[in-house]
Amino acid sequence: MKKLAMIPILLILSGCNLRVLDPKSQTASDQAFLIYLSFGIMMFVVLVVALLFITFTVKYRETEKNRHDIPKHEEGNRTLEIIWTVFPIILLIGLAVPTVMITYDVSYIGASSDDNALHVNVTGEQFRWTFEYENGEKTHKTLVLPKDREVIFHLTSKDVIHSFWVPKLAGKIDVLPGEETRLKVTPEETGTYQGKCAEYCGTLHADMRFETKVIKQAEFQTWLSKK
Amino acid sequence: MSSKTMSKDLYGDKRMGFFIYLFVEAIMFSTLFATYIIYTPPQMGLYPGELFKLHTVVLASVFLLSSSGTLMIAEKGLDRKNARMILTGLLITFTFGATFMYFEVDEFYKFISEGHTVAKNNFLASYFVLVGLHASHVLFGLGWMIVLLIQRKLLPFNLFAEKHRIFNYYWHFVDIIWVLIVIIVYTPYLF
Amino acid sequence: MEINLFGKLILLPTDVIAAWVLMIITGPLVLYWLTKKRAWPVIWDYATSTHHRKIGTVYIIFSILFFFRAGVDALFIRLQLITPENQFWVFQGDKYNEIFTTHGTMMIFFVATPLLIGLMNVAVPLQIGANDLAFPYLNLVSVYLFVTGGMIFFAAFFFNAAPNAGWTAYAPLSTSTFTAGPNNNYYILGLQVSGLGTIFAAINMLVTILRLRAPGLKLTRMPLFPWASLITSFLILVAFPVLAIALLLLQFDRQFGSQFFMGELGHPVYWQHLFWIFGHPEVYILALPAFGIFSDIISAFSRKNVFGYTSMVAALALIGLLGLMVWAHHMFTVGLGPFANTFFAITTMMIAIPTGIKVFNWLFTMRKGVIRIQTPMLFALGFIPTFVMGGVTGVMLASAAADMQYHDTYFVVAHFHYVIIGSTVLGSFAGIYYWYPKITGKMLDDKLGKWHFWLFLIGFHLTFFPQHLAGLNGMPRRVYDYTWEDGVFVYNFISSIGAFMMGASMLIVLWNVYKTHRKKEENAGADPWDGRTLEWSVPSPSPEHPFEKMPVISRRDPLWWAKLEKKELPHTENHRASPVSVKTVQPMFLSVALTIMSFGFIYGWIWMQILGGAAALASFVIRAFNDERKPAYEREEMDNEQ
Ligand code: HEM
Ligand SMILES: [Cu+2]
Ligand SMILES: [Cu+2]
What we know:
The complex is a heterotrimer.
Chain A: H1 2-15, H2 26-59, H3 78-106, E1 118-125, E2 128-132, E3 138-139, E4 142-146, E5 151-157, E6 162-166, E7 170-175, E8 181-185, E9 191-197, E10 209-215, H4 217-226
Parallel strand pairs in A: 1-5, 4-10
Antiparallel strand pairs in A: 1-2, 2-3, 5-8, 6-7, 6-9, 9-10
Helix pairs in contact in A: 2-3
Chain B: H1 6-39, H2 48-51, H3 54-80, H4 83-113, H5 122-154, H6 157-190
Chain C: E1 2-5, E2 8-11, H1 14-36, H2 40-48, H3 52-80, H4 93-127, H5 136-158, H6 183-211, H7 224-255, H8 268-301, H9 309-323, H10 338-366, H11 375-398, H12 400-406, H13 410-440, H14 446-472, H15 489-518, E3 550-551, H16 558-564, E4 571-572, H17 586-603, H18 606-624, H19 630-641
Antiparallel strand pairs in C: 1-2, 3-4
Helix pairs in contact in C: 3-4, 3-5, 3-15, 4-5, 4-6, 4-8, 4-13, 5-6, 5-17, 6-7, 6-17, 7-8, 7-9, 8-9, 8-10, 8-11, 8-13, 9-10, 10-11, 11-13, 11-14, 13-14, 14-15, 17-18
Bound molecules: protoporphyrin IX containing FE and copper (II) ion (CU) (2 copies).
């Protein structure tokens, strides 16, 4: 039971450092919000269970006194059973509604809201990434993005399935052969973030990493034209 | 324990078990039907309609479907303990089943010799897996009938009748699958 | 290491050599020991008997054997990951991929599933007053199929060809374009053969529970383990055929040139659908029987009937049903679109409700009871919080948008180990301690059992709790390496230490078994735990056909009430026929045939495919002319004529 109690403490201690919980875009903060919300709701459930569990196991343990008692036969209890059916339903609705809303928000559906959006073609292959910008320039090891401008990734694979993931910017999206998937994200802070392949893709899957550099818009323009 | 109801009890178990087994088969075939539907018609290669021949399908169906009917003769024979009817029923059914297999093998052979193989496209691949699995069921059934024909004399009647009845369910099931194959695989592309 | 054999240069990695050397040394030793102990007649008996207890024992023994094998794999994984940029032995790159694939596949298909089927075999017939499973011969075939499939998979490593596409074998990585060689053929054939065995076992279990119950034992009077087995069997019948077809299609892609799951013409995502339509029910196939075991144990060790029996059964059924409709929650990042994603998110969350009902019913079964904490109960007590933690992260994962962050990271690895180890592994341990007297007539040592429990449980939480955090910090699963900057060193280090604690706890089990069988202790008696259900009314170890006089049941927990009222259970001699047992070597023949055929397919040797296939078909014919029921039917015919 001590271990259960440690979860929140550990999380509070390390939460701000964990990449997924340190979002640098709206998408990632929406997702982090869902994580915190579901975690909170679930911690409440864990607490209730832990409380009952400890009480019952301590209180009804076999002792010298009750060793030969025959507990009363008890079929069930309608009221209690209704409570622990209805109550979780309410909690889950509390989680389901934001889940639906945010899932729609973070998914790329149809046209972009922003004409000024930057489009980047991402190609995964064993075992490297290729990032192609609108002017045809390509990079492999680093993905450079402007701050505060919507970016739309068009992703496809040359061979097996990969998955494109920059934890601080957004959840992952699979990169499939013979098909294009999309991801939109607007970075909100400059900095350098880790990017990884998250779908097992073969021998050197672990090495399929890249760096994401978010820089100011003006710097981005000069970087792109200089390339 | 009275041994007088033994065969009834044990046959009941076996029938239920076999029905459940057929349920398993039904799920396997459903998965293959879904696969076929997903991959047909193919993105490239011949359109299914240019490949299937109406008369082969009709002839094969006539033989297989009527074999389910002729198997009824044997079933009647089991009820009446009439050895002649059982023998006749089994023999006719076997002949019809074998004729069906002739058409199947012929069709497969033609397709393959004309270069329409599994590797060509996924329509053909799913066609071969689905129809091939069905054909192998028919083939297995033919072998089963041979075994039954031999067992006729060797087993106590109760036991033989039980094995025969189980076989009947199998054969009818294989027939139903064929009907579904005709409806799902052939019909949409023949007309 | 390089060997020059007949002019061919063969490269052998040192781990394979080590395995061969180990086998060549220990193999003869084991054989010698068995001979010295005069164990061969016993082994032969177990290999040819259709008695459900013996078959169950064989299931359990082989599952535990595979558990040690897959456990050693897990330790190698943890050694490779113990520090950043580590180079442990050969386990980088492909070797690492092979080892986590073997670990995962083996744990799921050759440990967890058969362990539970073994326990069902041992306990279910006794709990419902059946003399054996409905089809004893088929039961022996099932166990042979499991062992054969497991051994085929096991052998892969010895030929330096362990599968390497993950236990999910996602296409197109698993097709021959990207993983050529026999490796993943072992995966396909091993699972195909053992999967067939699982299907047969489920059919057998279903018919037994539906038709062979003692007089008066209505379905609503059954203990919860048979109930769970019933629903699990149904799930197996829906899930495993889909896997069988998926594997068949994959085999066509690999060997016969079709392109069902390849990039251009086919649909890689279709494999994922098929796999998870099987795969998600599979996790409930693993969880439900464990729930059943815990229900029985918690009730017996609290000296109280199960609280809310009806809702317990309803919850089992509901979990099973919902379990069939949630498979795409493993595919939130594939791009199925927000509509499909939210649909599957919500069905997934709904499963939490019946699961919650079960947890509260377990808790309230203990309330006002007298809780006797012996090893089986201790495992049940460890299960509740552990499983709840896994369930809780399950709901978090169900939240689709959030799952895009969790997916394919160590957060998921932590989650499924919490649920699978929390339910299946703890449940199987509990079941083994609980029914050990029914299996062998002896009790395992309680003190050592408790040591086992604590070491295992603490090791478990140490191993897997930090992995949540590693995942949240961006560590993907299935990587053999990470860097210092990743900031996951501490989590991984703790994790590796915990893994060795779990490993150590398993040595205690071995010691416990050895100790128990060393001394010639007297029999544990029919009812060592003061049980409530029918299995405790027959002698230990349970004899063949123990219910020649069939008990007549008038309520739940019949034995308990009979003991309370100090009465014998009423009996009848007039009941339905029992299944006919037989001693037979035929399944052994089938097993050899299938092994030959499988290796034919694995290496593409057509003559072996034909030889093995023909032999397998021949075994049908042999069976047709050697039906153990013939004498019985002849007798019946004679009786009826008189
Ligand atoms: C003995 C303690 C165990 C340890 C230390 C352990 C450790 C691990 C680790 C570290 C991984 C992740 C490998 C990676 O992603 O690179 C893993 C994967 C896995 N484990 Fe375990 N495990 C244990 C027991 C089990 C058990 C009992 C089961 C199931 C019955 C199981 C099922 C799996 C599965 C299915 C995978 C996924 C394999 C894959 O990614 O293809 N493990 N295990
Ligand atoms: Cu990768
Ligand atoms: Cu699932």
